[in-house]
Protein 1
Amino acid sequence: MKILVIGSGGREHALCWAIAQSPHCGELYCAPGNAGISRLAECVEIGPDDIGGLVDFATGNGIEFVVVGPEAPLVAGLADRLEAAGIPAFGPSAKAAELEGSKGFMKDLCAKYDISTADYETFDEPDAAKEYILRHRAPIVVKADGLAAGKGVIICRNKNEAYAAIDHIMTERAFGDAGGKVVIEEFLEGEEASFFALVDGTRALPLVSAQDHKAAYDGGEGPNTGGMGAYSPATVISEPMAKTIMDRVITPTIKGMAAEGRPYRGVLYVGLMITVNGPKVLEFNVRFGDPECQPMVMRLKSDLLEALFACAEGRLHEVKLEWRDQASLVVVMAAEGYPGYYAKGSEIRGLDKAEALDGVVVYHAGTKAAGKKILADGGRVLGVAARGETIAKAQELAYKAVDLIDWPQGFCRRDIGWRAIKR
Ligand code: AMP
Ligand code: GLY
């Protein structure tokens, strides 16, 4: 099969890595890809926002299956356009991608189909939003309705911070059009974890759980990032809890989306707060997590390509997934300064030594090849992933690999997996 993967991050490297192992994988392309991906796939210079360019490439090159990594092209309708061109795609339609694209839509769906989430209200006008703050207790959470690259959520410790957040999002339009509406919701206390399932319109197949580390520095300090590391499974999600999540979150979401005329296809990523009253939905994402995808694919024994293709074609009942008994963990290495300003172009050495360790895979994110050299070319640059009998063993091996990488201009957290290891 001729396959095109869309995206250029560690997640897409992990997807290409798993897809390339399938006997069904013929020619593999990635748009735009990175230096690591270019060892597995032919990289084509088309950005994820160039929907027309991607569709033209797929139709013009006989692509038989497209796997979409990031959310933006899905929200912009890439899967619909490909379907119209007769090319199956892994990822939801634009109407279904609103589950991630609009927090207001997602919260209303939860309310209508009795899916447990924080109490909330949606506003399209700042004065009414402030009035709500006046009547409610802090801490409280103010969220831009639309996509804001993970930055549109402001946790407010007191009412003044909440008023300022409303002005920032709605009046100053700090996140552009994403701030046309705000969702204001109750602050939830607990431990965060993610759960993933494949969904083919009517059926769901659970994947596994994972836990991300969003803060830039050790101990959860510093600004929020796209994710500085992750491990799988998330031990806070026990087997009975995974079943509860399937029954009370995933299944009603699929039924609700179908009933709303927006049947969901693709991977459903649920961000949860595990509270004393059970799991509550923080967010839905319509794609794999980055970096959660990296440890996840390392635990999978079955053919990922076969599963994704069956999912896209509505044949999920034909798929049975087998997982390794091991845990896995990824440490993200980022450019000094990330998530703020960072420089590009520094050389990364020692990758071959890290990759030579048994049970280690180094996934590239923002990298670029210059002859034989690998250069940093983004904020999150590498994901050093390892498998082990336990999360502690996977952590030890991942940091052993990190220490073999010679990149003075990079940094990483040293505590990925701490919650699971402490438990
Ligand atoms: P979201 O994009 O909605 O998942 O929010 C981003 C991050 O903000 C989450 O990963 C949580 O850490 C935090 N967050 C969002 N909503 C809440 C809430 N209601 N209570 C506590 N923390 C929250
Ligand atoms: N790691 C968080 C995300 O992919 O949204």
Protein 2
Amino acid sequence: MSATIDFIIDDKEIQGRPGQTILEAAQQNGIYIPRLCYREGLVPHGSCRICTVLVNGRPQSACTQPIAPGMIVENDTEKMNGLRRNIIDMLFVEGNHFCMFCEKSGNCELQALAYRLGITAPKYPYMFPKRDVDATHPDIFIDRNRCILCGRCVRASRDVDGKHIFEFVGRGPHKRVEVNAEANLADTDISMTDEAVEACPVGALLKKRVGYAVPIGQRLYDHKPIGSDIESGVAPASSR
Ligand code: FES
């Protein structure tokens, strides 16, 4: 088997390794493909569809689709970014995302993607769903108003922490993240250092008593758009 696979993303010839996904190979070559449910170190979920690219003209999720010789991938095009804007618009209106009051602002991947893609206000009507907050645990709380159902906490708790604390329950608009316990988060053995807490891309899982330790204006995406680290060649170590 060849040691490398040649293919094209947005008219640029790149090389990847056998077994890599499109997203991984792109990242290795300094090309950012927007993503939300994907997180390095977790099994890809392929559920948010933000990373959707066209492969030889057909839509595929870049976080799950393996590379193949000669494939032609369209990523950073007006068409694909327009589709991503639509998904992000819908995520904003189907939850209750008040960025100006959220501790995650500036570190939030949903907010950062909206900025990167030029969204200033959602175009769909807000749904203002009624969702629960679980603040029973002494160190961590869940605000389901901000949950985008990416499943990163579910996979991180199951596969990295080995605790199986979170799982999806319900269907359609009633789908939500629940805890594997008698009643609520306080009945679990979650801890501040769990990968599940770090894995949340939005402000749905937050630590108590550390709010605003990093001031607004000095946070991860306050100065550079999300994906800039990949485009400047400072990709996360495990993708190199
Ligand atoms: Fe690929 Fe969510 S990042 S489907």
